[in-house]
């Protein structure tokens, strides 16, 4: 596997500079920046399942998903001058966690902020365990990172059983962040209010709303902190997968979006499917031989390559690989 080598220090990690006739070894600033970024990403606690989620592969099947994507990108571009965080609301499988993680990852990489991902159920379980005699963590160890990071992503708000202890614990974290002007991104499956007849869109039934689930006091604080972003669409975990609608997507400005079946696009060198689409040319050819040419980067071996996607036959070709053969 190829690894990227720093063009400043050639991978040594040090630069030799001549000062007053004396050679001094100084840490390579480019390598130090890369090391800092890796440390921040590691400390952000993004789960492995979501680590490859980015804005460029966010699936859009409903206009509200496109609006939510724009809100997330606008938040990143406007930071640190953004006044409020975001509260993503919607049913399961519409991409709330995907957008939250993509936002967090981009902020860490581009803005060098400290960030933390926390799943509510896992947080409450870990906090309760910290009270036990055999726990390596204290309550302070669990709570402090959530309070002090520049950006907190709180996933699945309202998942925990709505006891007074749960509500007060969450309120303590959220209120601390509010007081010290720390930005927070929140997602939740619970609606703001029940629809007529006690049912929500897409035939979903509901027993509680988000204010009822977390308490009006905490809900009021979150409304001050976050802009509401409601997302609708099919469940990516059931409806889209079951119907064979999986695809890798790139936000491409005015160009038409590519709909490539998941797993089809791969690196011709190492066969990895962890591929990022960098650019897309307009359609070329006609009929069954009409194709879009796309420029790609393999995130596994850092190989740059071109691919041709034929939408009518759902096939891919790799021109460079064919020429080598």
Write the layout of secondary structure elements.
Elements: E1 14-19, E2 22-27, H1 29-43, H2 63-78, E3 85-89, H3 96-111, E4 115-119, H4 120-130, H5 139-148, E5 151-155, H6 164-179, E6 183-188, H7 210-214, H8 216-225, E7 226-230, H9 236-242, E8 275-280, E9 292-298, E10 304-310, E11 315-317, H10 319-324
Parallel strand pairs: 3-6, 3-7, 4-5, 5-6
Antiparallel strand pairs: 1-2, 8-9, 9-10, 10-11
Helix pairs in contact: 2-3, 5-6, 6-8
Keywords:
single chain, 325 residues, alpha/beta, Rossmann fold, 3 domains, 5-stranded parallel sheet, 4-stranded antiparallel sheet, 11 strands, 34% helix, 19% strand, globular
* Amino- and carboxy-terminal Cα gap: 21 Å
- Averaging pLDDT over every residue, what do you get? 82
SSE-based structural type? alpha/beta
Largest sheet: 5 strands, parallel
- List low-confidence stretches: 201-205, 242-256
> If helices are DSSP runs of H or I spanning 4 or more residues, what is the number of helices?
10
Q: What is the architecture of the largest domain at the second tier of CATH?
A: 3-Layer(aba) Sandwich
CATH C-level label of the largest domain: Alpha Beta
Helix content: 25-40%
Measured on Cα atoms, how large is the radius of gyration? 23 Å
CATH superfamily caption of the largest domain: P-loop containing nucleotide triphosphate hydrolases
Number of domains in the coordinates?
3
Strand content: 15-25%
Order of the strands making up the biggest sheet? 4-5-6-3-7
Number of strands: 11
CATH topology of the largest domain: Rossmann fold
The global form is: globular
């Amino acid at each position: 596997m190829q690894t990227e080598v720093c063009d400043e220090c050639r991978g040594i990690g040090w630069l030799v500079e001549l000062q007053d006739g004396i050679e001094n070894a100084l840490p390579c600033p480019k390598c130090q920046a890369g090391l800092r970024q890796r440390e921040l990403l590691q400390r952000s606690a993004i789960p492995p399942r979501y680590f490859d989620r980015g804005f460029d592969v966010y699936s859009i099947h409903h206009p509200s998903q496109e609006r939510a994507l724009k809100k997330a990108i606008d938040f990143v571009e406007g930071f640190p001058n953004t006044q409020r965080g975001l509260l993503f609301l919607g049913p399961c499988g519409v991409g709330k966690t995907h957008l939250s993680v993509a936002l967090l990852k981009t902020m860490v990489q581009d803005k060098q902020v400290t960030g933390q991902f926390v799943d509510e159920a896992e947080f409450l379980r870990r906090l309760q365990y910290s009270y036990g005699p055999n726990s390596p963590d204290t309550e302070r160890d669990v709570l402090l990172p959530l309070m002090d990071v520049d950006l907190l992503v709180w996933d699945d708000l309202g998942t925990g059983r709505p006891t007074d202890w749960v509500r007060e614990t969450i309120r303590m974290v959220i209120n601390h962040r509010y007081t010290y002007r720390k930005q927070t991104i929140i997602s939740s499956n619970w609606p703001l209010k029940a629809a007529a007849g006690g049912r929500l869109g897409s035939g979903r039934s509901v027993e509680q709303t988000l204010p009822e689930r977390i308490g009006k006091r905490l809900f009021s604080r979150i409304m001050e902190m976050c802009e509401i972003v409601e997302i609708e669409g099919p469940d990516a975990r059931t409806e889209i997968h079951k119907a064979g609608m999986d695809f890798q997507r790139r936000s491409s400005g005015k160009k038409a979006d590519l709909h490539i079946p998941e797993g089809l696009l791969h690196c011709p060198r190492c066969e990895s499917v962890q591929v990022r689409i960098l650019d897309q040319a307009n359609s070329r050819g006609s009929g069954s031989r009409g194709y879009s040419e796309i420029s790609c980067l393999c995130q596994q071996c850092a190989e740059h390559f071109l691919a041709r996607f034929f939408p009518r036959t759902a096939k891919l070709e790799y021109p460079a690989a064919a020429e080598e053969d």
